């Protein structure tokens, strides 16, 4: 791929994650949403919600036009930079926060609105806000968590678009250690929907991966309930 950024090769296998999930995901039609059942919840994955040309154009545009911020967390009296850049964007009044951080929304910009339109058309759902993450390379990450903050309401649905380097999205059950972890390699231009029943039962993360040298942008569309 040409351009201002390099896409990294697919990551090395991580042996303790369930690799078998990948085979059916990448054999089926990449233009259709495929359902993956996880206990009482489900994921839906569309590997090519945006074709490679669209996805690359969007990646370049968002790298240049998003007001990326380096936020920090305070842990035990120490200021720790979040290991990625981020931007919270949404309808006026959609205040969001996690781990003690309060985020005021940036106003929507055109390319993000266009991505939202596609996500809404494909999912049949409406979203009033999005958290954009920029993983500059494989040293950036997000730790185990669930998107279960009160402002997202009970049992929220999250729709996640990936652009750029292919990173490993890992999931583990919150309580039942006998349930196998799973891992999905999220392709450039993909849409992953975490449907109802996921956030209250499962945690997810994007681990650091030293072999990844290129950037990845992830947009997680959310719905703030009772926004100001
Ligand atoms: O980058 C990803 O795919 C996940 C990001 C995420 O979990 C979050 O922003 O809450
Ligand atoms: Mn999350």
Tell me what you see in this structure:
With 228 residues, the protein is of the alpha+beta class. It has a single domain, classed as Alpha-ketoglutarate-dependent dioxygenase AlkB-like (Jelly Rolls), CATH 2.60.120.590. 15% of the residues lie in helices and 34% in strands. The protein has three helices and 15 strands. A seven-stranded antiparallel sheet has the order 1-2-13-10-15-8-5. A four-stranded antiparallel sheet has the order 9-14-11-12, with no helix packed on it. A hairpin with an 8-residue loop joins strand 11 and strand 12. The chain is globular, with a radius of gyration of 17 Å. The chain starts with 21 loop residues before the first helix and ends in a 6-residue tail after the last strand. It binds 2-oxoglutaric acid (AKG) and manganese (II) ion. The site of manganese (II) ion has 4 residues, from loops.
Question: Which characteristics define this entry?
Answer:
228 residues; Jelly Rolls; binds manganese (II) ion; 15% helix; 7-stranded antiparallel beta sheet; globular; alpha+beta; binds 2-oxoglutaric acid; 4-stranded antiparallel beta sheet
């Amino acid at each position: 791929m040409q351009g201002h950024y390099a896409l990294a090769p697919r990551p090395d296998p991580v042996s303790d994650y369930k690799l078998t999930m990948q085979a059916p995901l990448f054999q089926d039609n990449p233009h259709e949403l495929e359902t993956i059942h996880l206990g009482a919840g489900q994921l839906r994955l569309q590997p090519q919600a945006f074709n490679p040309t669209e996805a690359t154009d969007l990646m370049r545009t968002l790298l240049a036009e998003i007001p990326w911020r380096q936020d920090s967390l305070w842990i035990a009296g120490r200021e720790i930079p979040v290991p990625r850049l981020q931007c919270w964007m949404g309808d006026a009044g959609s205040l969001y926060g996690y781990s003690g951080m309060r985020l005021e929304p940036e106003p929507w910009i055109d390319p993000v609105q266009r991505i939202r339109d596609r996500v809404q058309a494909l999912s049949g759902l409406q979203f009033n806000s999005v958290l954009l993450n920029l993983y500059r390379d494989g040293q950036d990450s997000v730790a185990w968590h669930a998107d279960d903050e009160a402002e997202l309401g009970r049992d929220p649905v999250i729709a996640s678009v990936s652009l750029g380097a292919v990173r490993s999205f890992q999931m583990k059950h919150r309580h039942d250690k006998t349930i196998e972890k799973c891992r999905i390699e999220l392709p450039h231009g993909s849409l992953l929907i975490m449907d109802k029943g996921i956030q209250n039962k499962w945690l997810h993360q994007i681990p650091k991966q030293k072999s990844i040298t290129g950037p990845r942008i992830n947009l997680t569309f959310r719905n703030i309930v009772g926004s100001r």
